[in-house]
Amino acid sequence: MHRKPISAPLLAAILAGLAMLGPFSIDTYLPSFPAIERDFTITTLQLQQTLSAYLLPFAFMTLFHGTLSDSFGRRPVILVSLVCFALASVGCVLAQSYEHLLLFRGVQGLSAGAGMVVGRAIIRDSFEGHAAQRLMSMVTMIFGLAPAIAPVIGGLLQSWFGWRAVFVFLALFGAALFVVCQLRLPETLPPSARQPFAAAPLFRNYVKLAGSLRLFLLSSAVALNFCGFFLYIASAPAVIYKLLGLGENQFAWLFVPGIAGVMIGAFMSGRLAGRLSPQRTVKIAYGIMFGAAALNLAHSGFFEPALPWTVLPVMLYSMGMALAMPSVTLLALDLFPHNRGMAASLQGFEHSFLSGIVAGFVSPLLSHADIALACGMAGLLSLGWLAWMLYLRIGSAPPQA
Description:
Radius of gyration: 20 Å
Number of helices: 17
Largest sheet: none
Oligomer: single chain
Order of helices and strands: HHHHHHHHHHHHHHHHH
Low-confidence stretches: 396-401
Mean pLDDT: 84
């Protein structure tokens, strides 16, 4: 089928829509936690595991999305994953027990990450250098809308129709993305550039990339920086209902400032592309994140949770995180230019795996108190900064072919 050439803004919008599957799958059903607890007669801890049931398969499958796209092309992997996601969302709508919900959440996780992983490879297939950073920043800006509007949509659907309507929305969103991608998404990896889908070379490439200390450190920096922000996203029901004493339609008090920070940081990254080196940009970003973490610790250590002071540090932190993310991500993808899909997969795996740990274990442990969450943010940020500093010490070697 012949497709018209696609403009950079339209490509950014499509890739951002694909990346939105992740936050939509998490954030839209957070306002429904109390209702799902009542319907299935389960504990809060059991319900929290529906996040891990999604995130851990999400992390596992990100190991393979990019690799499959290196062998079969970018479009087929994305289209098949969208079909699976839409069907899994229908399964969640029809779930008659907690176990059924866990199962279909797992299938959602297996399929939702393809757009995020393969989208990064598409950007690097299509653009070089500063143009790639600008496009990735544009994707991040558009994508940043998702966590802000998802809980608002989820709260309205919960109020009007109940929690199953949230998964109807996810099914329709996945189906709409399938139609758009079928009509307009280009194939950016020509057959001549594809890798053989055979066990021996795939295993060798996995061993090579997984053994790269530089790729591990860059992926760790991105993932741990994000987890400092995601800790508050995963803990949103506790922050909104228990710490701030707000209602199911007031999740925007946490999400809108946080995502406004993401969009501001992504905009800054795009503007600085070509003006500052990636290393200088990331240095500024860490200064912003550490300032936000210090403000968070100071407020939570001496004052009770209150608006706007509880959410202001989250906004500042997310701004620094989004400023650093495009630069660090592209540095990681450029390490292995012939295996960008696999590099994106390994990067996505670590990102998703650590997010699953934060959602399933760290958040339940810390979400009882504002000061505990602030310490968690500062700790995760410090680990991300340590990974970045270690990369700088060894990162002067030339990229591997």
